[in-house]
Amino acid sequence: MKTISELTDFYYKTLYPVLQELEEDRKALKQRVISFASVYIIAVALIALSIYKYVDIDMLFFMGVFALAGFGWLYRFLVSDYTSDFKQRVIAPLIHEIDENLDYLPELHVPVANFNRSKLFTSRPDRVSGNDYVRGKIDGIDIAFSDFHAEKRHKDSKGRESWTTIFQGLFIISDFHKTFHGETVILPDYAQSTFGDLIGSWLQTNNFSRKQLVKMDSPEFEKAFVVYGTDQVEARYILTHTLMQKLLNYKKRSKHPLYVSFIRGKIYMAIEYNDDMFEPAVFRSLLNYKIAMQYLATLHLAIGIVEELKLNQKLWSKK
Q1: Of 124, 170, 216, 241, which sees the most CB atoms within 10 A?
Q2: What are the entry keywords (predicted)?
């Protein structure tokens, strides 16, 4: 796998000229979107003013939601060509540069079965979406990842439907080619950071939706993450000091919640984001270097964790 420094060189020498061309397209598209939105808002307002005396508030609310959804659909239609162009000219070469053995499938996402098998989240989704599926091998290790959005459906006493997000962000799966006899799940430590050591530790110990609490010998890691598992010894074999330090380094750099599990020979990682990492923003410059580097650093860390486990294959062979 290429280093961050090599990828930065690739960014400036190969991708930056392409991004400059796409930046002109983005500016033109931005003006079209603003013009279209202005006309759309005026039209919706005129319709609302002409009928508000004849319909009740529930109907007006429903029409407002319908108008908002309609604008969302039309927005995606307006930007579809630009988005497709960006992915083919920027994301695809970038993925190939990270490792030439990776395939990029922009319309697909990781299967929901993998999300459920990960046991990173206790709720099963009723609706999933995603895109930008990448799969292949890095140093002989199978890996796949994509943007992924899992949602749960709810209904109130009147039968009205609503949706809440279980997870949105980058979801990664990798084979380790070794069988884990137990299950180890690493989650962000929200309980101790919110309620303190005493109450937080009690809540973690009495979390009935999870397996046994596994205490690690790194105080810094314990403050950042909580570990649950079915095999205390195996969990400590997996979480070497090097691997714990990689997870801590990621937490310090990214500020994004990280979830990791080791189940049946596979490694699952979920990195939470509030937006789609691969989608080009129409109202933000493409030449923002920090955005590109955030994406590269996230992938580099995830793949680095997989490589760290590969380096520890001797440790596993001793069992």
Answers
A1: 170
A2: Membrane, Transmembrane, Transmembrane helix
